[in-house]
Amino acid sequence: MRSDRRTDTGGETGSDSVRDDDGRGSKAKLSNRQLAITIGVLVAVFDQLTKAWALNELADGPIVIIQDVFRLRLTFNTGASFSLFSNGGVIIAIIAFGVIGLIMYMLGDASRRIEAIALGLVLGGSIGNLIDRVFRGAGILDGAVVDWIDVQFFAVFNAADVFINVGVALLLYAAFVRRS
Question: 70, 107, 109, 143: least CB-packed within 10 angstroms?
C-alpha cells in the first residue's frame, strides 16, 4: 500500500488517500501506534468488566465448570502473575508503570501489524492489572489484583493475564517470523 496525493478514483484531487497495490482507493487505516493503543484500551476495559462481573457473581463462592480441573473462583493477588512475589504490590505497580512506558516507546518502532497487536495486548493487560493495584487497596499502589479463572492444577489468573501472555507469545513469534 502506498499513500499519494494524486487523483484517486472515487476520491478527491489532493486528498490523502491510501491506494492498494491494485490501484483501488480505500479509507485510511489506523497506524500501528493507533491500533496498539485502541487494542490496549479495549483489553483494559474488557478486563475491568470481567473483574466487576467476578466481584459480583463469585462473592458467594466458586462456580465449578469441570470438577477438580476448572472453576471460576474469586481471589485477590497482592503479588505478580501466578501469585509470585506475594505482597510485592508496590514494587510490581512501579514495574508496571515502567512496562507501560516502555511499550509506549516501543510503539514508535512497531513496523508490523503483528507487533502492534502484540504490544496492544500487553499494554491493555498491564493497564488492567495496574488499575487494580491503584484502586483496590488501602494505600497508594498496594491494591490486590482480582483473579478469577482457576485452573486448579496450574494457577488462578484473570483476563489481563491471558492477554499479556498472548501478547508476549505473539511478540516472540514475530521475532522469529521473516519480515515480508
Answer: 109
